[in-house]
Amino acid sequence: MASTTSSQFLPIRACIFDMDGLLINTEDIYSMCANNVLERHGRPHLPWSVKAKLMGVPGASHSEVFHEWAQLPIPREQWKSELLEQQMLHFPECKPLPGVAALLMNLKTAKTVTGKRIHVALATSAKTPDFVSKTTDPEIQKMFEVFDTNRRVLGDDSRIEKGRGKPAPDIFLMALKCINDSLPDGESPVNPEECLVFEDSVLGVEAGRRASMRVVWVPHLALAAEYRGEEKDVLAGRVGLVAIGDEHQLGQVDDGWATSLPSLENFPYGDFGIEINP
């Protein structure tokens, strides 16, 4: 789906990024780790039809949805232990996804069409130990320098109420608060409608919409295939994978607040009122 440009929108002053599957290739690594353990116990590889229901859900790899499909011949605690062992082994192999480094570098010096600075923040469901393990690669560490430490909100951040992970908007609203709390003197606060959320998961898109922010959905090719024909509902935040109430926070189909891109390469800055230095 092509990106949408409309004069109804304010120029984007803040970009808030998810991490897993968006900035780094963790979705493929998660699949590999799960498949290694499944193979070990004589079970088939995890299909995307199941994986699509798990993405972005905290603890989903240990959930009823997963275990009802997997039918593993081992106790659940053993599955959890063996999966964690695989993840700790392979997370350090994470690499940036296409277009990410260039986008983040451009945003460091970009401005809005009205001449204002662009701010960036990280909002990831990854907990601190996993975040550290996934960002050991020097290229990733260099790339992530764009995110000031006080503008990184992780999944175990004590400021996020327990049970209020995505698709609740809390993590994105906290990231915006971190930006506003650290603005230079004299710079006006950034409003939610001046924020652009970057997400790969369906739940993340919904969280961004609930935060009253614009959203760019950059799904894995296999995830996009699972939601073929449902893209408009995804972009409106109306798939309903996890029910949390607060229906008034959801978007409307074709309201233009969200768009989908195949990757972060050749990002259409102008569609969001952003100008980059040549």
Automatic annotation (TrEMBL):
InterPro entries: HAD-like_sf (IPR036412), HAD-SF_hydro_IA (IPR006439), HAD_2 (IPR041492), HAD_sf (IPR023214), PGP-like_dom2 (IPR023198). GO terms for molecular function: phosphatase activity. SUPFAM superfamilies: HAD-like (SSF56784). It comes from the Eukaryota. Gene3D superfamilies: HAD superfamily/HAD-like, Putative phosphatase, domain 2. PANTHER family: 2-DEOXYGLUCOSE-6-PHOSPHATE PHOSPHATASE 2 (PTHR18901), SUPERFAMILY HYDROLASE, PUTATIVE-RELATED (PTHR18901:SF42). This is HAD-like domain-containing protein. It comes from Amylocarpus encephaloides.
